[in-house]
Every structure is written in structure tokens, then in C-alpha cells.
Amino acid sequence: MIKLYVKYKKKIILAMIKLRLKRYGRKGKPSYRVVAMNSRDRRDGCALEELGFYNPRTNQIYLNIPAIQTRLQQGAQPTRTVQHILNRAKII
Questions:
Q1: Count of C-beta atoms within a 10 Å radius of residue 51
Q2: Whether the model pTM is above 0.90
Q3: To which CATH superfamily is domain 17-88 assigned?
């Protein structure tokens, strides 16, 4: 399990790494990047690593499979949507 220690106002906070979607694209035409992020960060905040791309309009999926498998072995937890994408790609 990856544990990220963040120093915030002289407190040490234990945070979990999640695999989730980061939104890109124009208004009404979304596309997403699959990223590894601190679970406490905003959806469009700074990502630790970009792991792939997903376009729901054209159903285009690109995944960096070795990097995703490494993150999963380290203990990162995918969100439901990312887990569905990984199941379709037969990674999980």
C-alpha cells in the first residue's frame, strides 16, 4: 500500500493513492486522463503520474499497462469508473 505523508499546518496526514479520471476537453465534450493522485486532492488537481487516456464519445481507450500494474501492486485503489475501464481492458 502506498502511503503519502503530507505535512499540513504542522500535522502529518496519511493519504491514499487512487487511480481516477481527470477531466479535459471543451464544455459538453469531455475527455479524461487516467491518473494516479492523492485521494484528498481535487479532481483536476496535480497528478502524481498520468497512466492513460479515455474518450467516452468515441470510446477510445489508451492505457499504460505496465505503469498501471505497478501502481496496483503498490496498493493504489481504482475508483469504480476506472475499475470498469480496467475490466474492459482485461487488466484486473
A1: 22
A2: no
A3: Ribosomal protein S16 (3.30.1320.10)
